[in-house]
Amino acid sequence: MLDFSSLLLAAALSGTCLSVTMFAIWLTAPKAGFVLTVACGILVLVAHVILFWRYTKDPDPLLCQIVLVLLSLGFLIMCLSAMQYLGVPGYRRAVAPTLAAMAICAAVTFIGLDGVGFIITYTTVTALLSAIGAMFWINGSHDRRILLVVSFLSGTCAVSFALCGMVLLARGQWTLAVAPDNWAERLNSVVAVACMTALGALTLSLHHLQAQIELKAETMTDPLTGLMNRRGLMSLYGEKRFGPFMSVVMFDLDHFKRTNDVYGHPVGDQVLCRFAAVIKKYARTGVDAFRLGGEEFAVVMSRMTDERAYDLASKIGVAFGTEIVATPLGPLRSTVSGGIGFGEVNGRSLDEVLTEADIALYVAKRAGRNCVISGKKTSKAEPVEPALRSA
């Protein structure tokens, strides 16, 4: 027969080691806030296990209340860590019901119905673990294998706590005066140790996965404008074939070198950020923007006819022309030129479409700037309304 006290101490030791590991990871990567939350949750659960072990030796009504509160609180923190990692909003939806259950549990335990208190707590923990499993199952967008294992472990642990409550309920043990000790409690101790160890290892894997994703995002993001960079463009579209409803617009800010020379590079950076903000304003599903370097930008448009693509590119040019940047030398207004390259029925490579867009952009520059030229109509410039003087 399994020694119940040994199981509890094993769970406490396992949890302590995991918590220390989580804290060490967080100290090396402070941005991984969910790791710190997990560590705090595990520490609370370790405190619960230690006090529960003490309660099995020396039952005390006040100690019973503390033990049950710590159990619910620990898994509440674990649930919040899952929401934090997955970006699920509405923490109050988990906190409010759990606090209400903890208050009810404390009340019934205070009047001597500690068995009912255990049942309420086990039900609360089952709900929290089920919520964790469901969140990872539904909201996980990274490595599905890891996320599905997390869901399975959370569900298994939830079942073990549910069994503990069902045994007390089936036996009608409303008043215990001692720590519950039955086959479900022993099974729960084994499952808790196994799941806690496994979830700790998976937390490390999730942290490593998130770090990789963040690093990849940083390498593909332009730090000044927040748009994706040339690496991002090649990553997303380098191997893609551009069909008839895909196009690329190449934008180049007019007289940008003169802007830097006259107004200074900080003002030039503001102009670049303003143009990026204009592009973001017109962004929608199927529209991805990139800063290729310097004053050059590219916008990839999917699921758009040639006419709609040209119309959107022209609107971006006109909208940017209305932007005003305050400088020590007075308000600065800038313009932009654009050229559009299109895909074909048989498909074209990114390089082919960019080349067409670049040729059209060159035509736009020679046509007087402040206009958007279609690669299919490079013999005809179609300037937009200038409304502003060029920088």
What does this structure look like?
It is an enzyme of class 2 (transferase). Keywords: Membrane, Transmembrane, Transmembrane helix. GO terms for molecular function: diguanylate cyclase activity. This is diguanylate cyclase. The protein is of the alpha+beta class. It folds into 2 domains: about 5-220, Rhopdopsin 7-helix transmembrane proteins (Up-down Bundle), CATH 1.20.1070; about 230-375, Alpha-Beta Plaits, CATH 3.30.70. It is about 65% helix and about 10% strand. A 5-stranded mixed β-sheet has the order 2-3-1-6-7, with helices on both faces. A two-stranded antiparallel sheet has the order 4-5. Helix 12 links the parallel strand 6 (about 335-340) and strand 7 (about 370-375). It starts with a helix and ends in a 17-residue tail after the last strand. Residues about 380-390 have low confidence and may be disordered.
Mean pLDDT: 86
Strand order of the largest sheet: 2-3-1-6-7
Query: How many H/I helices?
Result: 12
The CATH architecture of the largest domain would be Up-down Bundle
Query: What is the highest CATH level, the class of the largest domain?
Result: Mainly Alpha
Distance linking N and C termini: 84 Å
Number of DSSP E strands:
7
Main sheet: strands, sense, barrel: 5 strands, mixed
Low-confidence stretches: 379-391
N-to-C series of helices and strands: HHHHHHHHEHHEEHEEEHE
Beta content: 5-15%
Radius of gyration: 31 Å
User: Any idea of the CATH topology of the largest domain?
Assistant: Rhopdopsin 7-helix transmembrane proteins
Shape: elongated
